[in-house]
Amino acid sequence: KTTLAKELQRDHEVQCHFENRILFLTVSQSPLLEELRELIWGFLSGCEAGNPVPDCNFPFDGARKLVILDDVWTTQALDRLTSFKFPGCTTLVVSRSKLTEPKFTYDVEVLSEDEAISLFCLCAFGQKSIPLGFCKDLVKQVANECKGLPLALKVTGASLNGKPEMYWKGVLQRLSKGEPADDSHESRLLRQMEASLDNLDQTTKDCFLD
Questions:
Q1: Is the C or the N end of the chain the one with fewer CB within 10 Å?
Q2: C-beta of residue 94 within 8 angstroms of C-beta of residue 68
Q3: In the predicted model, what is the mean pLDDT of the chain?
Q4: Are 46 and 58 in contact (CB under 8 A)?
């Protein structure tokens, strides 16, 4: 999701539409909200940083501006950072949770087979395609076990980097049985997922762990 947001920021058509008036901010799980509000206020109003941020609206010039808020965790943080109301501003929010009304939400789907193979090969071989001489069916079967999930594709692909085909066959057998690809595979995945658990309420956390 972050990658897509950054590509949008660099897109020529988007840059032209907003005349390069684009602000990209990473909010994170423990944001310094007042500092972020100052940055947003300074970007929107043209005032220098350090000036107090008013809680009321302010007469803006109406110029088109884009604010991208990446890695937003809570509705409270989102409400605090989007309290400024003025014409010409568009806000894009990137979050692992649904924080806005459904009609304004776009769910990022899992990768298609071609996209999954491309990402998997990039991590396993350092290129976006299957190298000549390597068994294509074996690569596709291992990649398919990742079910189009980018995190699984990256972790699994990286664990197979530089490994011989015989090793790949053993990994495929383990994955097909629902077992980790290797001794560190499961722990690496769990470390990546741990941050998501910390922000859940207890009931949701229990369901997730089940």
A1: C
A2: yes
A3: 84
A4: no
